[in-house]
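SECTION: protein entry
WANTED: fold as tokens:
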Amino acid sequence: MNTALKLGSLPVMGINMTKNYGSLKASKVKVFAVDGAGDAEFPSFLPKEVEKIKDPFARSLSKRMKRLPVQIGMSESCIMSSCVKPLRQSNKTSPVVLLHCFDSSCLEWRCTYPLLEEAGLEAWAVDVLGWGFSDLETRPPCDVASKRHHLYQLWKSYIKRPMILVGPSLGASVAIDFTVHYPEAVEKLVLINPSVYAEGTGNLAKLPELVAYAGVSFLKSLPLRFYANMVAFNGIPFFTILDWTCVGRLHCLLPWWKDATVSFMLSGGYNVISQIKQVKHKTLIICGQHDQIVSYQHVVKLHSELSNAIIREVSDSGHLPHVDNPKCVAKLIADFAQGDADVNAKSQFCLAQLTALPRQ
């Protein structure tokens, strides 16, 4: 468990169906009924275990997943890169590009993604190189520079306009690193419970390769991932948590997952501490009211170090508010993307709430 937290936290997938989300459920059904994903087949590149998943929103988003060729290096070689594309592209609003947490996939956005589309946004959910469902049969390096270059090439080939880049947890480090190197590709940033003050993978980068592979195997294990869900969510039936666990580790079943994760671990990982103050883009920081992974002090510290940032707190949520409370997160992202001044006003109230929270 400590290894997982050092790397950026495990992806805990799921939504507490005992909570009251008003019209959220109806909204999601409406969106997926329009796109016809309910009748589609699962992409052939997904592990066959996807057929056993019961979560209807994970099943629907899985069926919309595509692989796009993304050129890497100076050669003509491409990586078939997994993502969920928008149903239609529009020049009316900036595209919203959704990253994910450490060792997760675009399925992390299964609850929020349809709500962003319903709000009229051009939303892309992309898998960061080395995680998710891209074809890595050639075993490319999966260090920070490679992840950054791959994302840029995907943006350059398909998105092509300044984007609103959304990064949860370690995905916030991915977003900051990318923005500093390619500022012209980013219009605004959204950082969700941002894990940005870790100094890379630390001593894990010095492990012998054999030990690193053993550790990564543990990271993949069903008991560890199940435990992470148990810690994050309370009062959820056993079989529901088990299903969420299967969603969260589905990408780990690909044959190159272990090699890609060890490559990242031994490369040193993300350390963006010195880059934070270089970010000049307008930034929305979203934090979960009950986040037990990223501390309150770090959220406030990040707000103070970014020159153009606002904070918004999401109630009744933990480390993954886009999973706990997707309706609220979708509205915050949509308002921010569309330039709603109300987000700025609400953030002042939110900051007052944050400073009143007990220190952890």
About this structure: Residues 1-36, 341-360 have pLDDT under 50 and may be disordered. Strands lie at 65-71, 78-84, 96-98, 123-126, 163-168, 186-192, 282-288, 309-314. Residues 56-338 form a domain with the Rossmann fold fold (CATH 3.40.50.1820). The radius of gyration is 19 Å.
